[in-house]
Amino acid sequence: IPGVALAPEYRRFYPAGEVTAHVVGFTNVDDAGQEGMELALDERLRGVPGAKRVIKDRLGRIVESVERVREPQPGEDIALSIDRRLQYLAYRELKAAVRRNRADAGSAVILDVHTGEVLAMVNQPAYNPNNRGKLKRSHLRNRAVTDVFEPGSTIKPFTVAAALETGRFRPQTLVDTRPGYFRVGRKTIRDFRNYGLIDVSTVIQKSSNVGASKLALAQSPEHLWKAFASVGLGESTGSGFPGESGGLLTDYGSWRDIQRATVSYGYGMSVTTLQLARAYAALASDGRPLPVSFVRRTAAEAAELASLYEPVLSESSLRAVRRMMELVVAGGGTGTRAAVPGYRIAGKTGTVKKSGAGGYVEDSYLAVFAGIAPASDPRLVMVVMIDEPRGEEYYGGAVAAPVFGKVMAGALRLLDIPPDDLPSMPGQRLALLHGPAQKTGGAH
């Protein structure tokens, strides 16, 4: 057709679609980053266009190229730390859990304990960056880094670690939680039921608010605050992700007894899902909170970053707390649905009352689970948060823990992380009985 010509036009296509949308983000028609890592790394990805001097006719058509003024410079090739296999696992299980529990939203994050790399980060609801015509603005929000919430009982391991650091408590030290409630000033702190006289390990296993409060009140406000701050609570994770919140950890100078008591079980402070995962990664290693990275990082780079932090919690206290957290997932604990056959899992449940304009809202909850695997030699940390579950159950151990269990089982297998809790098999004993030792007169 005279006067009509074709010109090529390039557009970004995101092959993983919804699965990685909140991490990768998208660009506008001019290829400028608008969300996610497309926005965070825009300057590095964009490159510099070339330029040349040309002669045009009166219709604006180029008739002659005179000289090249500047060579084009392509943007960087950047490898993200996200493992697409783990990302899909987390996406699938989180989406199913949000639907099954008729929840408003949910988030999940998996971190590499040793490098601080984000291996998976998903949110629900999500969006498809390849189909923005039906996009809802609220679905763009990366809740794992922007939305803060009170972490509830998932903070108790840090309270207990701080108590162990005082030297006045051991895992076997008894704490009196009778009669199942405890008055601090004019407020009453309650447990799910009366756990009686229990040791510190059982405070974690049964998730006793009364026990955690008594441990906190036996510490100075400064000591408890330093334990929380030392694992990165109350500050940004250093991820560089657009819109990230640093959460809230108020200065200990303003804490009265009731604040010290309630913060011990995760009220009166706030975190993001990513921030809580970072704190658990510190708990899983040597107590130093590595800055989180969405870009691949070597072990040497991670070690250099770790050297900038001075741990407050000793490795012996952290190991003791991790052993207590294994009881949460074992029989009799609150997080048994997070168990992964063949692996030792350390974790903690949280069931958090949501707050509104007039205070805490009845029958409105967040279900949270944070865990470490394998417990004997931690490699991965995962945090799952489900917002406003409306199914038959709303507890962290019933709603969030199963997501952890299913995703972590797949992640450990995909990453070839060997089991650390295999039972001894009869065949192993038979091999000894009928092996070479028997032929040379060995024991039968």
Quick take:
Helices cover 32% and strands 19% of the residues.
Please give a structural write-up.
Helix content is 32%, strand content 19%. The protein is α+β, with helices and mostly antiparallel strands. It has two domains: 17-70, Penicillin-binding protein 2a (Domain 2) (Alpha-Beta Complex), CATH 3.90.1310; 86-127 and 142-414, Beta-lactamase. It has a five-stranded antiparallel beta sheet, sandwiched between helices. Strands 1-2 form a two-stranded antiparallel ribbon. α4 (84-100) packs antiparallel against α15 (401-414), α6 packs antiparallel against α13 and α8 (209-217) crosses α10. The longest helix is centred in the N-terminal third of the chain and has 17 residues, at 84-100.
The stretches of 5 or more residues where confidence is low (pLDDT under 50) are: 429-444
Count of DSSP E strands? 13
The residue fraction in helices comes out at 25-40%
- CATH topology value of the largest domain: Beta-lactamase
Coarse morphology: elongated
Q: In the residues, how many domains can be counted?
A: 2
pLDDT averaged residue by residue: 90
| Estimated structural class | alpha+beta
Quick one: CATH superfamily of the largest domain?
Answer: DD-peptidase/beta-lactamase superfamily
CATH C-level class of the largest domain: Alpha Beta
Keywords, please?
444 residues; Penicillin-binding protein 2a (Domain 2); Beta-lactamase; 2 domains; 17 helices; 13 strands; 32% helix
